[in-house]
Amino acid sequence: MGMFAAFGLLIMLGLYFTFAAVQGDFGVFKRAELRAEGRALQSELDKLQSQIVEYENLTQRLSDNYLDLDLLDERVREVLGFVRADEIVIQ
Predict the structure, then answer these.
(1) Using CA atoms, how far apart are residues 17 and 23, in angstroms rounded to an integer?
(2) pTM over 0.85
(3) How far apart are CA 60 and CA 54, in angstroms?
(4) Which neighbouring-strand residues pair with 67?
């Protein structure tokens, strides 16, 4: 009977460690989940960095050192709703 109990205990320990290796905090599923989350965060970071570059470009084009008149005209029309006297607005 003692041998069967020891064998049963070994099986239970084996099952426990197998479960922990697959689904535990440091298991295979958790690692896959963390990798997927890392890829999603890297994608979001790349998107935000491209937006920063775009905003820096627009800011530089409207700065005191360099003034893009076409961009200024576009922004005035969009933000303030300005229209030139010789234009017709269709809504």
Answers:
(1) 10
(2) no
(3) 10
(4) 62
